[in-house]
Amino acid sequence: MDTTDLPFHIIMVILSMLPVEALAKFQCVCKAWKNIIRDPKFVKDHFQIQAAKGKDYLLYVPLDRTIERAFTLLCDETFDQALEFEIPSEFRDMSFIIIGSCNGVLCFTDANSFGSTVIELKSEAVMRDSVHWKADYRDGDEGIPVILAYRMGEEVFRQIGLPNYKADGKGLVEHIGVYKGNLAMFVFHQSDHFSWHKNCHLWVMNEYGVVSSWTKLYTVVIDAGVVTPIMFTNNDEIIFEDGECDLTVCHFERNTISYLGVEDQGYLNFVTYNGSLVMLED
Amino acid sequence: MAAETGTPTTLTLKSNDDELFSVAESAAILSVTIRNMVEDGCAGGVIPLDNVDGKTLASVITYMNGISAIPADEEKKKSYRDKFLSDKDFETLADMVLAANYLNMSCLMDAVSAKIAQVMEKKSVGWVRRKFGIENDYTPEEEAAVKEEHKWTFEGVETDDDN
Q1: Of A22, A25, A30, which has the smallest distance from its Cβ to B135's Cβ?
Q2: Which CATH superfamily is domain B10-120 in?
Q3: CA distance A8 to chain B (A)
Q4: Tens digit of pLDDT for each residue in B115-140?
Q5: Of B91, B133, B154, the CB nearest to A25
Q6: How far is Cα of residue A216 from the mean position of the Cα atoms in its chain?
Q7: Model confidence over A116-134: pLDDT tens digits?
């Protein structure tokens, strides 16, 4: 038998299991297939099936990228290189900045259209349907550091008090994130100024919103010091740039330090890569 | 359903080319179509399956016996399904997906559909048209236009070797 006559609904099931690259190619099979593949309901179903199979990666975009090696996905557990992407030809003349990633779509903007743009490294934590930032609460002339929480859906801001970490030293820098499902704060001396301070501390808020539940869980000694914390990982670690300009991963529980093996200048963020059929047509 | 007297009930299934197969009721009722017949009491004699040929039915019964012998362990069931489908060619898989659809066996249907998707993923458009019996209804210009839109997807396509 050289040909098969599969009914339409079975063909739909088979197509919904194909990765997005194959579906884009198979639009050429015939008009009926193209119509299925571009049907909004199919696109949605396909996205859900693929999302369930999606994997988390750490996206790395080097600052001095080349056309062939523009985006790199690292495995979020081992930090091994998993995939590399080229810059699409339409964007090769553009000097772009990554804004974020959502549903398999990477958003970036043309840096030239902003003139000179300064990218600030954010310290933010997303949990319990809320985004948390480190902020300064102005009381007269004095700035009191707090965590500002914005609850999505309810669209309300609230303040969360920081732990009492005065005993950890003076001139400390705080970086917030999520550690094992709890709001966490990494406290360190920026080693540019205090390179002899090697102790860093991890505070965790055991009961969400209860200031008295802040607990200092770990104190780690980092020989090269911390210059810029980047982010907490999904595996109970923090990634930061150390005093020798290496991107370093510190695992608190195991008290181990390892190196990410990518250059320190660039963009890093967690993304779920699963390809999307949303074709972004004009 | 199976009597409590001990001896397992056996059903006789008949393919559309008149082959007869004996299968334990406990394995056969993985098919919702067969289960409904048993529950309605129409499974006394021979159960005719008009949409399945003997070769395919033999294969489906092998699957029914194999998977029902595995206790509730999704990992083991999955690895059995992978192994069961690993050596099947496209035509056999197409016959099996039709049979699984007719017999209403969702676990086999999902596994075979996924396997077909895996087999065709890297194939050329021409291969897919041949195997699915689809006629190209694009004009050469239209086809070129669709292709041009997603040029990058034609990288890494295997050369056809007809498997």
Answers
A1: A30
A2: Potassium Channel Kv1.1; Chain A (3.30.710.10)
A3: 11
A4: 999 999 989 999 999 999 999 999 99
A5: B154
A6: 25
A7: 333 333 456 777 777 788 8
